[in-house]
Specification:
alpha/beta; 376 residues; Rossmann fold; seven-stranded parallel sheet
Length: 376
C-alpha cells in the first residue's frame, strides 16, 4: 500500500507517534511518504520504502501570515499524482485534516478519489480546536474525513462533547516498540552521572507548559526528599521551566534537582529512574508515562484524560486527582521506601506497557486502511 502521512515533525507526541507508525508500516512492506515542513525528528533514515517531501511556503509581502495550509494541500496533490498514493493519513485535525480535504477535492477534479484517515491526538481538540476561531473548521474537517481515530477513549468522548460530529470515531491507542527495550543498553556505572547509589532517581519529562503542572512535580519531590535520599531529573524545555527553577531555589533543593533541557538521552535517563511523575492538568493519552513504563519505571500521575487508560492504579503506579500533591507524595514515598514494593511495581509497569506494543497496534491501522480503501 502507498500511504502519505501528514504530521508535525517536532518532538511532540503526535509527530513522534506518526513517524514511528510510518516506520513500522514501512517495515511491513508498505511505501510511506511523509509530507511536512521539515524532516521529522524520529525519521533518521530514508529507504526505498520511506520518502520525505518537504512543504515549502513561499514568502510574499502580500501575506502577513504565510498560508501553510495552501502550500500543504498543493504539495499533497503533487505527491499523490507523482507517486500513486492510495491513502492519506493526517495526524492532528488542524491544519492537516483541513488541508487534506482540500487536496482530496482538487484531486477529484482530475478523477482521482483518495480516502483520508484523520487521527486526533489531543490539543487539536481540547485546546486549539475548541477555540471559537477554529471550531467550525475542525468540525468540518473531522466530518469530511473518510475515517477518524482518536488515541484514547477519553479524547473520543471530549471530541463528541465539544463538536457536532457525525462520524464514527474509532479508538486506536498510541504505542511503543517494546523490542527496543528488551535489553538494558546502558551500564550501571553510568547511573553515577545522575545520582549516588543510595539515592532514588525521580524523573519528569514534558514541554514545561502550564498544563503539565511542573510546580506540582517540584512540590511532590520536596516532600519525598524529606523522607528518603533522592534526586529529581527535569527533562524538557518550555515557558514554565523558569517558574519551576525559582520554586526549587525557594525550597533550597538546588543540589537535588537537575534541569537537563531537551535531551537526546531520555532512554538512558529513564533506564536508571525509579519513579516517573506526571501530575498534568490533562493528557489525551500520556505517551510520556508509557515511555517510562516500558523502561520498568512506575508512574505517579493525575487521573485525568487518557492517563487511567495507560497507568493502571495500584499496578503500574498510582493515580490521584489533579493538584493532589499530598496524595501523590504519599504514593511516591510508599513505592520508593520499600525496595521489594519498588521492584514489584517496576515489573508491573513493564507488563502494563507491553499491552501497547507496536505489533499489537499497527495491524489495527492496517485494518482501518483496508476499510477506507474498500469504502472509497
Amino acid at each position: 500500500m502507498k500511504i502519505a502521512i501528514v504530521c508535525y515533525p517536532t518532538f511532540g507526541g503526535s509527530g513522534v507517534v506518526a513517524t514511528e507508525l510510518g516506520l513500522a508500516l514501512s517495515r511491513r512492506g508498505h511505501e510511506v511518504h511523509f509530507v511536512t515542513y521539515k524532516q521529522p525528528v524520529r525519521l533518521e533514515t530514508i529507504s526505498s520504502h520511506i520518502r520525505f517531501h518537504e512543504v515549502n511556503v513561499p514568502e510574499y509581502p502580500l501575506f502577513h501570515y504565510q498560508p501553510y495550509e495552501l502550500a500543504l494541500s498543493s504539495k499533497l496533490v503533487n505527491v499523490v499524482k507523482n507517486y500513486g498514493i492510495e491513502l492519506l493519513h493526517v495526524h492532528y485535525a488542524i491544519p492537516h485534516a483541513y488541508a487534506g480535504y482540500m487536496a482530496k477535492k482538487m484531486l477529484e477534479e482530475e478523477g482521482i478519489n483518495i480516502p483520508m484517515v484523520t487521527t486526533l491526538h489531543g490539543t487539536d481538540i481540547t485546546l486549539v480546536g475548541n477555540h471559537p476561531f477554529y471550531k467550525p473548521a475542525v468540525t468540518f474537517s473531522i466530518n469530511n474525513s473518510d475515517l477518524v481515530t482518536s488515541v484514547s477513549d477519553s479524547l473520543k468522548e471530549d471530541t463528541l462533547k465539544f463538536f457536532d460530529i457525525r462520524k464514527e470515531i474509532e479508538v486506536i491507542p498510541n504505542f511503543i516498540d517494546v523490542s527496543k527495550f528488551e535489553k538494558k543498553a546502558f551500564t550501571d556505572c553510568q547511573r553515577e552521572l545522575m545520582a549516588h547509589d543510595d539515592e532514588k532517581i525521580i524523573t519528569h519529562v514534558s514541554n514545561f507548559r502550564k498544563v503539565k503542572r511542573v510546580e506540582d512535580v517540584v512540590k511532590i519531590f520536596f516532600e519525598v526528599q524529606k523522607n528518603l535520599k533522592a534526586r529529581l531529573m527535569m527533562v524538557g524545555e518550555g515557558p514554565e521551566r523558569v517558574v519551576a527553577e525559582k520554586l526549587v531555589r525557594d525550597l533550597k533543593i538546588q543540589d537535588r534537582v537537575l534541569f537537563l533541557g531537551q535531551s537526546n538521552e531520555i532512554d538512558k535517563i529513564l533506564c536508571f529512574s525509579d519513579l516517573f511523575l506526571l501530575p498534568s492538568e490533562t493528557e489525551s493519552f500520556g505517551l510520556a508515562a508509557l515511555e517510562a513504563m516500558v523502561q520498568s519505571v512506575p508512574v505517579i500521575s493525575s487521573n485525568t484524560g487518557g492517563l487511567p487508560e495507560v497507568n493502571v492504579g495500584g499496578f503500574s503506579g498510582y493515580l490521584h486527582d489533579v493538584g493532589d500533591v499530598d496524595g501523590m507524595s504519599r504514593s511516591a514515598i510508599s513505592i520508593l521506601e520499600n525496595q521489594d514494593k519498588l521492584m514489584k511495581f517496576k515489573k508491573q509497569a513493564r507488563e502494563a506497557a507491553e499491552k501497547f506494543d507496536i505489533n499489537n497496534i499497527v495491524p489495527m491501522y492496517e485494518e482501518l486502511y483496508q476499510k477506507a480503501l474498500i469504502n472509497a
